[in-house]
Amino acid sequence: MNISYKDHKITPADYFMGCPTMLNNEKAALAKCRKIWHEMKKTKNHKYIDPDFGPKDANDTKGNEHSLYKNGVLPQKGYPEPNEIEWLSSDTLCEPGTKP
């Protein structure tokens, strides 16, 4: 049976490498996005910070390193150093009062 992403129940089998916000298939990803969107709408939160990917703040070097490289270590010479990467949220790229 082919069910809609709206009816898809996410299970740990959908997680990529055990990470609940990185998913193995499109249907699970859409279901997760829909769930997050409804939660944000309910709380009137307009900024999503992924709990499993990327740095949580400017001082989070581990989140930065592990979001770029699986073990947080450069795979080989020539790849950018994690501290050379600047992580920006879309709201920092827009003029105040405009929507990203």
Cα-atom radius of gyration = 16 Å
Helix fraction by DSSP (H/I, runs of at least 4)? 25-40%
Low-pLDDT segments: none
Number of helices: 3
The neighbouring-strand order within the major sheet is 1-2
> What integer is the average pLDDT?
86
Number of domains: 2
Structural class: mainly alpha
The largest pleated sheet is described as: 2 strands, antiparallel
* Element order: H for helix, E for strand: EEHHH
What topology emerges from the helices and strands here?
Elements: E1 15-16, E2 19-23, H1 26-43, H2 61-68, H3 90-93
Antiparallel strand pairs: 1-2
Could you characterize the architecture of this molecule?
This protein is mainly α and 100 residues long. Helix content is 30%, strand content 7%. It is built from 3 helices and 2 strands; from the N terminus they run E-E-H-H-H. The chain has helices at 26-43, 61-68, 90-93, and strands at 15-16, 19-23. A two-stranded antiparallel sheet has the order 1-2. A hairpin with a 2-residue loop joins strand 1 (15-16) and strand 2 (19-23). The longest helix is centred in the middle third of the chain and has 18 residues, at 26-43.
Structure summarized in a few sentences:
The protein is mostly helical and 100 residues long.
